[in-house]
Amino acid sequence: MRFTSEQRLDDGVLERTFTLGEIPGILWTPASASASAPVPLILLGHPPLGLHKMYPRLAARAAHAAADGFAAATIELPGSGDRPRWAAAEQARADLRQAMEAGGPVSDDIIDALVLPLVDRAVPEWQAALDALLSLPEIGGPVGYSGGVISIGIRLAVVEPRIVAAGLFAGSFVPRAMFEEARQVTIPLHVLLQWDDEGNDRQAALDLFDAFGAKEKTLHANMGGHTGVPHFAGEDAAGFFARHLR
User: Fold this and answer.
1) Which of 40, 102, 147, 207 could potentially form a cystine with 45 if both were Cys, beta carbons 3.0 to 4.6 Å apart?
2) What is the pTM of this model?
């Protein structure tokens, strides 16, 4: 991990950009973080739209985490932002747009091509980033995962024992194969669902929640579309991580 810039934000949070090989990322640490008092970490997932586009939302989530005494970090997803283009992913996105514009159902083949290769590439990168982040003296764990492509969160929850709790956003297409992986998820879960999300199959989201094997899992469903998440939903998620990361 190589830090490439740093700045102190108005609330005292230290924001540092970094690279991990070819992977760009951002780390936010609260003013209270130090080698003598390392803090827990929340990994901030996001959709494959690029860190530059997602930065305002990610920074706001990181500020909320820092106010609760947690570090937060994110990395650029494969084929997104300034990373090398990924022809197969771009073709899958084009096929998805065409299917949705046609008004018909999105086939399993399109969903599989869109999501499964991304999960296979992204999860090992998240694990490598976690290795590097936990080697920093100011970060001591435990670790939570929040948001982003829900299938990435599912895979991480299954294969990464250092993640002890996850907050997942039910707003992306989920391959059928991921339902079997969901049954293997046993860490505490906080799942957010927008009831009228125009891009989400509500019944599939409910079926996925039912499939999770966790004994502690909570579904927070709110009225409204994809961008209509109420402010208090963030407070509920913060309370979830406070219970499990402190």
Assistant:
1) 147
2) 0.93
